[in-house]
Amino acid sequence: MRRLLGKSLLAAVLFAAVLPAAPANADTRTSGYIVLLDNGVEATSVSADHGTSANHVYSSAVRGYSAKMTATAAARLARDPRVVLVQPDGVATTTAQTTPTGVDRVDAELSATARIDGADQRVAVDVAVIDTGVDLDHPDLNVHTAGAKNCSNGRTADDGNGHGTHVAGTIGALDNGDGVVGVAPGARIWPVRVLNNQGSGSWSDIICGIDYVTAHADEIEVANMSLGGSGSDSACGSNRDALHEAICRSVAAGVTYVVAAGNSAANSATFVPAAYDEVITVSALADFNGLPGGGAAATCRADVDDTFADFSNYGADVDLIAPGVCVLSTWKGGGYNTISGTSMASPHAAGGAALYKATHATASPGTVKSALQAAGTGTWNTATDPDATHEPLLNVASF
């Protein structure tokens, strides 16, 4: 599991071994200091001699201690011949927020609705993640815990796998200057758990999730389903496929569904819900640098930059293509991870649908689908598409 653990120390002014005497009216407020000592000198003795209480005592990497004291006391301590350094304590933070290459490639940073600037302005839209659940406490997600639903095993909608949390981050990770940022930053995520910790679930569990989303269609604008299995299309109302009938009615209630094309390098016509006409089906692009033109070196897995991902399903049922290779996003346990799949491509488009709905509240699912396709571009190596239908690459710059 990959976590963002890099740190950068704020610059600190060092005290020389000998400091001038502090003025009589020196500040009496205490601050933190780090004290380094000569070899063989005991931290407790120096600290006691100077009337301070050691917080941390160091004896392996360095010899010394940390303590709070006034600037006057620090100046006096620096003149002690047993002391080699007195340094003001500093503050370390995680590295600055990362814009994942996929979010960059779909131009989310150019969207006036996304407003990616680190100010934590949140897109006013609700998105259901029908998946393995979502990390209910992840600090980089706006999770609607009161709206969580568990249709799978386990006791809650908390994510025991990581997949659903990853999907949620690509859709709407917070633009808070930390971790990563999603396509629709701060979108309110409804965790709908239909898959177990191993990432599998029954059609009945999945229909339970769709049923729940439909019951809240007056609140939820978009639903992402990065899951699927064998099947074929049918007509709404034909009552040949319970899953399809559920999605038909949910779409009719106003919810836009975005789904993964599948990872079998096969025609998506033989996979559901990818084959359904009512959903937005998304294939995966291999993109390693967030830029068009190709040529970037592969990162987490072998593939060719700016090409149709070698695992992605294809065919006439696919409506859009979006980045799905080596995608960095949120992960269970408050962490971050990089994984690949059409499951990672789909939430880019779900985020795009969320941006559109945020400014077109009355748009029907069909209108949202058409808008995303119309805004898409052909700036990818379409010659690598296994079929003659070259789906547009998601682009949300105009949303």
TrEMBL record:
The active site is at residues 131, 163, 343. Residues 48-91 form the Inhibitor I9 domain. Residues 1-26 form the signal peptide. Keywords: Hydrolase, Protease, Serine protease, Signal. Residues 125-373 form the Peptidase S8/S53 domain. Transmembrane segments: none annotated. It comes from the Bacteria. GO terms for cellular component: extracellular space. Gene3D superfamilies: Peptidase S8 propeptide/proteinase inhibitor I9 (3.30.70.80), Peptidase S8/S53 domain (3.40.50.200). The keyword Nuclease does not apply. GO terms for biological process: proteolysis. The keyword Cell inner membrane does not apply. InterPro entries: Peptidase_S8/S53_dom, Peptidase_S8/S53_dom_sf, Peptidase_S8_Asp-AS, Peptidase_S8_His-AS, Peptidase_S8_Ser-AS, Peptidase_S8_subtilisin-like, Peptidase_S8_subtilisin-rel, S8pro/Inhibitor_I9. One of its GO terms (molecular function) is serine-type endopeptidase activity. Belongs to the peptidase S8 family. This is Subtilisin family serine protease. It comes from Saccharothrix ecbatanensis.
